[in-house]
């Protein structure tokens, strides 16, 4: 119930959806079918959390939920009334900076943060802005983090820089294991805080803050990619690349390029993925983790394109680059590389070129060396483990081992973090099983499970085109 009386739109939508026995993904699909919109499960979640007021989609929501449109409109008005202590002002200058003006009512500030977070997302995607002025208010973890930064800093920017470095390390270790939408929202708060203090920083600390902002933008790109929010991911990549250039930090620039290459790969654009991977290797020196990873990425993109010669050359260069890594090269976290007997993505590359038996062996080596003991399978990078299982499934299908292929697929879908790249591969396995073993009970059971997981997550699932 609102403090102004009446129903709020978020709880009402949640109640109506549950009564209709619809998942968030299913409701989004119904609305899209009615209105031609392109909503995802994440949009429905934002409506129910009141991070966004539906407005334009209200008629379609009413139809999908068999609800009274006037009731939904009234709930939206009540929600807006609870937010009227917040004014959002977008000044003409400086370009790309959003000024937020809050009323004295602290409760209004808390309600307003939900609106602001969504407004920021739209503004970043639309304008490609590099910084935002955020209040030191938020919800949950994001609010606590900015409060801690404010108290620790208190006119000492050096203390804030140190704290931001700790946060970047923390998020780089957890962004691949936590819910991408949750970590995205937290990172958005911290990135906005960094942009705010950057405006007033002296010359001596400005570069440090630019570096921090760049790494946070790179992490935001990773989280957005895992949600299937590709436009937002590209905006954050561009911001990280700009920060890298401004701060003279080529590795930061290269990591953002790697993310763009990876997105293109899973969207079925191998030539574009190769182009990004090649460009990124020019940005970072041999002997850095990102150079080795980009060489490996170029290898699997070449395999997806069917370019065996370039795949072999890239594999050879990746092996050379890995051999030149320092002993303390990062092997965990978002900015790391998995070190096994073969360069990363070797199994995927072999599978894409039809060398299925070799791919089975290479995948098995990765699982044994990277994802053992079992705690690492679902701890540090559950999505990475799931993708290895899906590659194993497709390789097993290639050699005619239906039972093992399906077993690997079910194990992958049993994970707790179905990110967009994972669901893309899961869809590829579904197509492979249909093509090779269509009509079998095992293939039908996997298809049903894949559809169930896809429907419950709403994660984008653009499938890679094999070109054959």
TrEMBL record:
<dbReference type="InterPro" id="IPR010982">
    <property type="entry name" value="Lambda_DNA-bd_dom_sf"/>
</dbReference>
<protein>
    <submittedName>
        <fullName>Helix-turn-helix transcriptional regulator</fullName>
    </submittedName>
</protein>
<dbReference type="GO" id="GO:0003677">
    <property type="term" value="F:DNA binding"/>
</dbReference>
<dbReference type="InterPro" id="IPR001387">
    <property type="entry name" value="Cro/C1-type_HTH"/>
</dbReference>
<dbReference type="InterPro" id="IPR011990">
    <property type="entry name" value="TPR-like_helical_dom_sf"/>
</dbReference>
<feature type="domain" description="HTH cro/C1-type">
    <location>
        <begin position="13"/>
        <end position="72"/>
    </location>
</feature>
